[in-house]
From TrEMBL:
Transmembrane regions listed in the UniProt entry: 21-42, 82-102, 161-185, 205-222, 234-262, 345-365, 393-412, 424-446, 466-484
One GO term describing the cellular component: plasma membrane
Gene this protein is translated from: SsHKT
Name of the featured protein: High affinity K+ transporter HKT
Annotated localization: Membrane
Pfam families, A to Z: TrkH
Membrane topology: Multi-pass membrane protein
Keywords from the UniProt entry: Ion transport, Membrane, Transmembrane, Transmembrane helix, Transport
A GO MF term: sodium ion transmembrane transporter activity
Domain of life: Eukaryota
The family this protein is said to belong to: Belongs to the TrkH potassium transport family. HKT (TC 2.A.38.3) subfamily.
Length: 500
């Protein structure tokens, strides 16, 4: 074999040694570390010198922003305008839409490398045959691989075009959403007054909230999350589409965008993307029937939650002071956020246990969960038995991992569970763990009024329940956030277990 094909084959083999899991994990860890440096050293909190967050809390916030988990251990109004800008960048770079765009670039590169490698390898074989068999006539059929080559070219062009569509989709939604949020706050005096009282910059707030909502992170620059805006139904209605466009309905909306572009341009590449979703290899591009199933399931789960929430919480403590219209919009906003943004206009600790269990179940579900019979027609004739790796057999299932994490945290926080049982109960800990795993960010919070042995120095804080945990407990939750962001690589875990 000539030197050039050998070198290409070696590069390809070595590049495949690094699995996507390690590349993605390294990406999030490096981004979290850089975010920690930016938040801790490049910029300073606006509460100095009266209060400065601990290094672990700053790193926790950086990880939470990068993994779009929105778990918090310090109040959001601690951070300065510059720090909020850094967090906006972290949420944007860690959001699923942007990371999927980066994966498309890797897919493009891999396809180009494979194409060039195969052509060079074939050319090398021809030269080798000519050198060794000089007395023989070598006949090469120029159209032998024409169909495969043509399909490969169309595939590469389609992937390139898809990357442009995704790249355009992201800024259009963010810019339009940010403009609408800014316009609403400018026009509505009550919303504008809230920002003035808290000393928040209008443009920073609008961009931060829009990026956080679209990336499904859920951070809001106010201490009270969206509770202070619970009567601003217009703002909630602006944010609801952004939640859906960036996560659970990202795939269906992307397919609609591609279908629209195909109708107006008639480009064959768009048709190829629509009809060869698995061959393109983009994780958010599904066949038509499966896309419809995802959309129907998303709407169905929202309707179920909305009906249950309105039935049980219509006249509850959480909805006091709201009109019927505000209750309906607020309930819709709340249930949409359970998958997986985590913004909240209600104090979750005041909701009924049945609602909390329902919310915990919704936080556990992955974005593209479907409850309809989905058959992959594109691969129906090509189904093969896939060889599983050893790790897939010995690894634990995702529910098992959540149980293990919960047990470890209960052991670490056992003294607080004994002395402060109303705050540190198993339900609150399980809810926090599932929220971190689902990268949702909803939290039961902590209340001094629920202390069995009142502490005169206790002050109610608006950050998450994890803010009252020990440093060890917070570090374990950081691991849970990474695990939750990477959970797609553990979907086949626990296959070795047989429950009879």
């Amino acid at each position: 074999m000539p030197m050039k094909p050998l070198s290409l084959s070696f590069f390809k083999a070595t590049s495949l040694r690094v699995k996507p899991f390690w590349i993605e994990l390294g990406y999030f860890m490096i981004l979290s570390f850089l975010g920690f440096l930016a938040l801790n050293y490049v910029s300073k909190p606006r509460t100095l010198p009266s209060f400065r967050p601990q290094n672990l809390d700053v790193f926790f916030t950086s990880v939470s922003s990068t993994t779009v988990s929105s778990m918090s251990t310090v109040e959001m109004e601690v951070f300065s305008n510059v720090q909020l800008v850094f967090m906006t960048i972290l949420m944007f770079l860690g959001g699923e839409a942007f990371t999927s765009f980066l994966k498309l670039q890797f897919i493009k590169k891999e396809n180009k490398d494979d194409s060039f490698s195969n052509k060079d390898y074939e050319l090398g074989n021809v030269i080798n045959v000519d050198d060794k068999l000089e007395d023989h006539h070598v006949i090469i059929n120029p159209i032998e691989h024409s169909d495969d080559d043509r399909d490969e070219v169309i595939k590469m062009k389609s992937i390139g075009l898809l990357s442009y569509v995704v790249f355009g989709y992201i800024p259009v939604v963010i810019l339009l959403g940010s403009m609408l949020v800014s316009l609403y706050i400018t026009i509505i005096p009550s919303a504008n007054q809230i920002l003035k009282e808290k000393g928040l910059n209008l443009h920073t707030f609008s961009l931060f909230t829009t990026v956080s909502t679209f990336a499904n992170c859920g951070f809001v620059p106010t201490n009270e999350d969206m509770i202070v805006f619970k009567q601003n139904s217009g703002l909630l209605l602006i944010l609801i589409p952004q939640i859906l466009l960036g996560n659970t309905l990202f795939a269906p909306c992307l397919r609609l965008a591609i279908l629209f572009l195909w109708k107006i341009t008639k480009r064959h590449e768009f048709e190829y993307i629509l009809k060869n979703s698995k061959r393109v290899g983009y994780s958010h591009n599904f066949p038509s029937f499966e896309t419809s199933a995802i959309a129907i399931s998303v709407v169905g789960l929202i309707v179920v939650q909305f009906v249950v929430s309105c039935s049980l919480e219509w006249n509850s403590e959480a909805t006091i002071g709201l009109s019927s219209y505000e209750k309906m919009v607020g309930s819709l906003f709340e249930v949409v956020n359970t998958r997986h943004t985590g913004q909240s206009i209600f104090d979750l600790s005041t909701l009924t246990p049945a609602i909390l269990v329902l919310f915990a179940f919704m936080m556990y579900l992955s974005p593209y969960t479907t409850f309809l019979p989905v058959d992959n027609y594109e691969e129906k004739s090509q189904k093969m038995k896939r060889r599983r790796s050893l790790m897939e057999y010995i690894s634990f299932s995702q529910p098992s991992c959540l149980v293990i994490f919960t047990i470890i945290i209960c052991v670490v926080e056992k003294d607080k569970m004994k002395n402060d049982p109303l705050n540190f109960n198993v339900l609150n800990i399980v809810f926090e763990v599932i929220s971190a795993y689902g990268t949702v960010g909803m939290s039961m919070g902590y209340s001094c009024a629920r202390q069995v042995n009142p502490d005169g120095h206790c002050k109610d804080a608006t950050y998450g329940f994890a803010g009252k945990w020990s440093n060890t407990g917070k570090f374990i939750l950081i691991i849970v956030m990474f695990f939750g962001r990477m959970k797609k690589y553990n979907q086949r875990g626990g296959k070795a277990w047989k429950v009879l």
